[in-house]
Amino acid sequence: MPENEKKKTGRPKKHPEKEFDTVDEQSVDKLEMSKKGDDAPITLEDLGARYKKTFDMIMNADAHGASGEAAKYISTTAMQYNKLNPFLQNQRIKNLYTGAKDFDKARILEFLQNPGSHEQELRSLAWSQSGAQQIYYNILRRAADIPQYKHYVVPPVLDKESEYESDAFKAEDALVHDWLRVFNVPATLKTMALEVKREGKQSYILRNKFVGEGKSRKTAFATFQKLPTDWVKLVGIGQNGFLVSFNMMYFMNIANSPADFGEFMVKAWNDITSKGVVYRDENGAGAINFDLAKDYSFSYGGVSYTALIEQKLMGKKARSYFFWLRLPADMCFTFASDNSNPWVAPDTMGLLQKLQELSDYGKLAGLIASTPLTAVLTGE
C-alpha cells in the first residue's frame, strides 16, 4: 500500500444481501394452452377436433395421388395412430350408446303414441332422465342388481359311462369351466342387464379366443362385444331371437376398426372396400357404388349374407348413406327386456312423461323460490 494513502478505519459498509426467489409448496402452477393471438384457452374438445382433422388428412391422403404400397402404408399408419388417439377412442366408446337428449311434454307424448317411429328419441330421452332423475336410475339399477345370475353346466349325453372318465372329456370339461371363469357370468350379465333395461334391446357379438393345445388349452378372452345401438337394425326373428343387420358405413369413421368386432367384420369390410362397393369420394366423404352394392352379398363359412342400401336426405343437399349387412345368427345375439315387440326403446317409456313433469315441477319450484315477491310474502 502506498505511504501517501491513508488506511480507512472503522467498520466496513454493509452490502445488501442478495435476494433469492422463495418456493411456496402450497402454490399450484397452472399451464394453459391458448390460441395464437387469442387469450381464450383451448378446450379438450378443440384439441380433439384438431386431432380428427389431422387424421382425416392422413386417412384421405391415398385418395389424392398415392397408390399401391404407398396407399396401403398410409391407411395402415393412420389406423395405428387412430387406435392410440385418446380423443377418437373416447368418442368411439361413447358412440356405442344413444346420446342423451331432452324433449318437451308435447314431443314426448307424440313419441309415446308411436314408439316404433321414434325409437332413437325415446332412447335419448331415457338416457337424459336416468341422469336427471335418481328415482328412474334406481329403477334401472334394481332391475340389473336383484337377479343373482346363477348358472350351471350340462354335459353332453354320451353313449357309455366310461366315456365320462376319458382324458378328452375331462380336458373339454376343464376348458368349459375355464371359459366361464374368464367370461365372468355375474359381472358380464349384470352390465348387459343395465344396458338392455336402459335402451330396451341390445345386440352383441360373441368373441372368444383359445390358446394352447390338448390339456394345456386355455381361454385367452371371452366376452360379448356390444354393437353401437344407432347402427343396428332388427330385420327378422330366428331360433335365438331377433336377427340383425349392421350399417357397415360405421367403419368409414377413422376411429372405428372392424378388428374390434372380430373376424367376420374384418373379412366383410375388406371384401366391401377391395371390390369398391364402399369408397371415399374426392372430398374424403364415405360413398357407395350403387351398381356394385345392389347385388352385393358376402360369403362366410359357406353361407351368403345379403346387404341392403339405404339413402337419407339430411337437409336440402347433404345425404347420408347406409349399407346394411346381415350378421350371422350364431355370432350376433340380441337381448331384450321385452321380446313381445320389435321396438329398440326402453320398456319403461311410460314413465318418461311423468319424469319430465317432475323435472318441470323442480324448475318451477326453483323459479318461485328465487322470485323477490316470494321472499316478501314469506318474510324470508
Tell me about this structure.
- α5 packs across α11.
- About 6% of the residues have low confidence.
- The N and C termini lie far apart (89 Å).
- It contains twelve helices and ten strands.
- It is globular.
- The longest helix is centred in the C-terminal third of the chain and has 19 residues.
- The strands form three sheets. A five-stranded antiparallel β-sheet has the order 3-4-9-8-7, covered by helices on one side.
- A hairpin with a 5-residue loop joins β5 and β6.
- With 380 residues, the chain is α+β, with helices and mostly antiparallel strands.
What is the mean predicted local confidence, pLDDT?
78
Radius of gyration in whole Å, from Cα? 31 Å
Terminal-residue CA separation: 89 Å
Strand content: 15-25%
As laid out across the biggest beta sheet, the strand order is 3-4-9-8-7
Uncertain segments are 18-36, 62-66
Q: Let me know the largest β-sheet.
A: 5 strands, antiparallel
Please provide the count of β strands. Answer: 10
Oligomer: single chain
What class do helices, strands and sheet pairing give? alpha+beta
Total of DSSP H or I helical runs spanning 4+ residues? 12
Shape by Cα distribution: globular
In helices, the fraction of residues equals 25-40%
Order of helices and strands: HHHHHHHHEEEEHEEHEEEEHH
Keywords:
alpha+beta, 3-stranded antiparallel beta sheet, 12 helices, 380 residues
Compact description:
The protein has 380 residues and is an alpha+beta fold.
